[in-house]
Amino acid sequence: MAEYRSIRERYGLLEMFKNPELSAEVTLQPVKAFSVDAAIIFADILLPLEGMGAGFEFAQGEGPVIHRPVRTAADANALRVAHPEEDLGYVLKALELVRKELNGEVALIGFAGAPFTLASYMIEGRSSRSFLLTKKMMYEQRRVWDKIMSKLAETITAYLLAQFKAGAQVLQLFDSWVGCLAPTDYREFVLPYSQTILQALRQAGVPSIHFGTATADLLPLMRAAGGDIIGIDWRTGLDVAWSRVGEGAGVQGNLDPVTLFAPWQLLAARAKEILDRAGGRPGHVFNVGHGILPATPVDSVKRLADFVHEHR
Amino acid sequence: MAEYRSIRERYGLLEMFKNPELSAEVTLQPVKAFSVDAAIIFADILLPLEGMGAGFEFAQGEGPVIHRPVRTAADANALRVAHPEEDLGYVLKALELVRKELNGEVALIGFAGAPFTLASYMIEGRSSRSFLLTKKMMYEQRRVWDKIMSKLAETITAYLLAQFKAGAQVLQLFDSWVGCLAPTDYREFVLPYSQTILQALRQAGVPSIHFGTATADLLPLMRAAGGDIIGIDWRTGLDVAWSRVGEGAGVQGNLDPVTLFAPWQLLAARAKEILDRAGGRPGHVFNVGHGILPATPVDSVKRLADFVHEHR
């Protein structure tokens, strides 16, 4: 959006995240431009890494770079459990500001990265294709892995509960890269930690969304870990995904974000297919199946939001 | 393998592919070192791009770079259908040499990249995460897309049939990145082209393997496109994948290649799980679910091959 780019030109990404007024403004931009039912706070899943002592930056053209990758027992021991109010108070403040502005008319979603996805950034030091170092640690250094995952689960639980307290009405756990795992590895090395977080949210009485990509056959396990809504990407038909998730949970998804670049006729057909597969069942949150891409045509997003409201 | 690295130190990758004696030697190295039932020719899926006029190189540290990316109608029109004997004779020669050496004791697998995966390299110009340019062309420039895919299908069909003639006993079609597509997009934009190739192989009487990654819910469509064996990655339990593939086809897979870095006890447990899920049914080819990684411990590969033979 032009409104976003005009701010982005003047500030660094981290600078924007750490400025609650700017974050609130950016969060509200799509709410003002499109007929959406919810806003998601402008933040990044990596923000808690700073308070944990790993440090990171968004390097020009190559995505996030972790300053002190976590690869040994000593590294894992040195990690701190972040304190939401002290380390991430700027996100909480932004949530308060947005919640006030939304005035109860549009729901406010808070979020955090899930332990596996954050651990993968910490261990690899950057984005990865093979997740070699992450999986090697899982397999070879079980105790170090468990220490990292425990500290992450504790950090994320406190952070999400603080977001709830600050005004978030729904909390999303982003396990963006967990789809690189075999189901057996997910069950053994990841599920218990995501479960800790999602159970705490349930006990606090806040609805949760549990999301990942390429998770076709992890869906039953992700549901077992928790989440009132399971987020799915476009790689699985919505009805098929929902049957794997099972009774008692909703689904969020699942348009390929690149389809927003398609001519309207094709985009509308794909959106209609998703609504048809949902079949009017309660518990479907229409959404793209992963983050929206930078050059996405704004007008297509607008038409899509209207189309979904007309055809739901 | 040390034997491989000592050759690789002295030659560039393309130089090795284009030298049939070296390619044959490298192909035979794992056959000599491990108790494997088949050898796969040492080559790269991108080799046909040169004869098609796109050109490429393996850039240090960043993977393949296409010299003349294909993004317009004019680019697509300028593409040639490669001629296997003229443009890829060095692969055919290597197959002849290897087939002779194997002496009928170990099967020889030839292969090619599938149209979608090769088109994605041609259009993006390099590896991609979002496949934005590729999908945009699919959606926005249907005729250009169809022209590229047609020329690729024609090139690949001729190339694979020539490999059969040169001595390959099984042919594998690698659609490595097709798992980035929604099932509906696969059916509409990709299936017909892969089908053309796989039907031609069936008519020629040569067994085929049809492989992709992150294809959990593409498996029934990939089977519809063709392939006597469907290759699957580790993201789906082998029994679940096989039931999606359906009756009448076998499956190849599906160990996570990174599990080869794990301590033996864990690696053996994962291999045993795959064999248990196959349940002794005929038509299971044990393999890793994607390419083996450079630093893989050679001893683990050796133990795994022996383990599978003992426990199958």
Computed Rg of chain A: 19 Å
β-strand number of chain A: 9
Q: Which overall shape of chain A is indicated by the principal axes computed on the Cα atoms? A: globular
- Structural class of chain A comes to alpha/beta
Oligomer: homodimer
Beta-strand percent range of chain A? 5-15%
Largest sheet of chain A: 7 strands, parallel
| Contiguous helical run count of chain A | 15
The biggest chain-chain interface is: A-B, 35 and 35 residues
Give the topology string of chain A: H per helix, E per strand.
HHHEHEEHHEHHHEHHEHEHEHEH
Residue runs with pLDDT of under 50 for 5 or more positions of chain A: none
Looking across the biggest beta sheet of chain A, what order are the strands in?
1-4-5-6-7-8-9
CATH class of chain A: Alpha Beta
Q: From the coordinates shown, what is the CATH architecture of chain A?
A: Alpha-Beta Barrel
Distance between the termini of chain A: 26 Å
Explain how this protein is built.
2 copies of one chain form a homodimer. In chain A, strand 7, helix 13 and strand 8 form a beta-alpha-beta unit. In chain A, strands 1-4-5-6-7-8-9 form a 7-stranded parallel beta sheet. In chain A, strands 2-3 form a two-stranded antiparallel sheet. Chain A has 312 residues and is α/β, with parallel strands linked by helices. Chain A is 53% helix and 14% strand. Chain A has one domain: TIM Barrel, CATH 3.20.20. At the A-B interface, helix 8, helix 10 and helix 14 of A face helix 8, helix 10 and helix 13 of B.
